[in-house]
Design a protein that fits this description.
Elements (H helix, E strand, L loop, with lengths): L6 E3 L7 E3 L3 E4 L4 E5 L17 E5 L1 H6 L9 E4 L14 E4 L1 E2 L8 E3 L8 E2 L3 E6 L6 H8 L2 H8 L3 E2 L3 E2 L2 H5 L2 E4 L2 H44 L8
Parallel strand pairs: 5-10
Antiparallel strand pairs: 1-2, 3-14, 4-11, 5-6, 7-9, 7-11, 8-13, 12-13
Helix pairs in contact: 2-5
Length: 229
């Protein structure tokens, strides 16, 4: 991997040096945060026959993914003239509450066009208004160790770990030129796909080895294979 020609001090201890031509800026200047569903009770969810059913992004879809899986949505009743925030393509979503520090503040990005979809009440959405910001790059950036650490240390709680909305707005992020953001995001997309394939293949091999282990035990203890001392 090549390095950039020149670097500068970011002025942020936990980030250190950054490429000379990159900028450092707070999230609040890139867009705005909005809330998920409000005023809903248990009876409003998963009513299969209700004509007012609308899809929403569940907590687990953000927890389990880097990019929102639009095949893994749930439904909620949204009545006519009801004032609820709709999610849009390129929005980011944050887990504002978790059972542990490792997951609080985790993000996922919506990369596909959707006609109408909402967000669960336990998360916050972030809509980018700065056209120079690539949503996939920003989401990958939020997965970096320095930024994950920056959010984790701001969270607090006992039985539930919670993150205040202003901690996301005040978060310092790094921005290269837009063309570099897109190139970085595309590179990481490719590498993540390669890693995911390796993991899938490794899981298949582990399953085969488990099957072989079980079969071997069965064959030996039932006398199908003779063991010579």
């Amino acid at each position: 991997m090549k390095k950039y020609d020149t670097y500068k001090d970011s002025g942020i201890e936990w980030i250190g040096e950054i490429p000379e031509h990159w900028d450092e800026i707070r999230m609040r200047y890139l867009g705005f945060l909005y809330g998920g569903l409000s005023g809903k009770s248990a009876k409003d969810f998963n009513q299969d026959s209700n004509p007012n059913n609308k899809p929403f992004i569940p907590f687990t879809n953000i927890y389990n993914n880097t990019e929102i899986d639009i095949e893994n949505l749930q439904t909620v009743v949204i009545n006519e003239n009801e004032n609820q925030n709709k999610a849009k393509k390129n929005d980011l979503f944050f887990l504002m509450s978790s059972e542990n520090y490792d997951d609080v503040g985790k993000s996922a990005v919506l990369t596909e066009d959707v006609s109408e979809v909402y967000l669960n009440s336990f998360c916050k959405g972030f809509r980018i208004t700065d056209k120079a910001v690539d949503s996939k790059f920003l989401n990958y950036l939020l997965f970096s160790k320095p930024l994950r650490h920056a959010l984790m240390i701001e969270a607090n709680g006992f039985t539930r770990i919670n993150l205040k909305i202003d901690k996301i707005s005040d978060l310092n992020v790094l921005l290269p030129p837009t063309s570099e953001q897109i190139a970085i995001a595309n590179y990481l997309d490719q590498k993540m796909a390669e890693i995911d394939e390796l993991i899938a293949n490794a899981k298949k091999l582990i399953d085969l080895l488990k099957e072989y282990r079980t079969a071997l035990i069965s064959e030996v203890v039932t006398g199908k294979i003779k063991v010579v001392d």
